[in-house]
Amino acid sequence: MNILKTKKTVVSIAIAVLLLVCTAQADVKAAKDKAIDQACQQVAEQLKGTNFENIKTIAVLPLWGADKDGYVCDTMKSHLSNSPYAVMVRSTEEWNTLLGEIKWDTLREDVMNPQTVQTFGKIKGCDAIVYGTVRESDINPWKFQAVARMTLHMADVETGQIVWSSKPVTASAWLEWPDILQTSVHHPVVLVVVGLIVLLIIWTAFKNLFRAATRPR
Prior knowledge:
The chain is α/β, with parallel strands linked by helices. It has two domains: 2-10 and 20-24 and 186-214; 29-176, Rossmann fold (3-Layer(aba) Sandwich). The protein has seven helices and seven strands, in the order ααββαβααββββαα. α1 packs antiparallel against α7 (188-214) and α2 packs parallel to α3. It is elongated.
């Protein structure tokens, strides 16, 4: 009877460990935010080196790619506020209408035509628009790092022409140790190994239980 209780306990612990591994979630937001902040800062530093006399105020469009919640765009606006150009922050009905007319799903940052750019010239005080693509904003599970990659452009709304483009920007930030440990348990290799160990424990427990039950009294 004691053997049976012991085996049940071992199996329960093994199953609990497997469930813990499968449901563990790492809080990686801090590392992702840091990588995004560093990437946006790099873009702002590049733009600081420019001086277009006919451009006083810029507007930042929603970014394509890996910025579904707009966090990268908001962070970019914050950093660009330290550039030589004032950043438009107010939202008007006309501005929202223009944004709604753009077919975001069919455009890429390298094919925005001059005519589309020039439509933003209707907004009073807007001299240029900044737009582009966030190519990556995610966790690299092999390196335990958050990575942010983006490319931006600035176009004159009067001519519709691109006047500045950033170099491809990449920034990364290490995860904190607790997050590394939690992220590692979701690694495919770790999951397979843990699964095999749990199965081995269960198999050994039942094998010993069977032997104990069939042992001559």
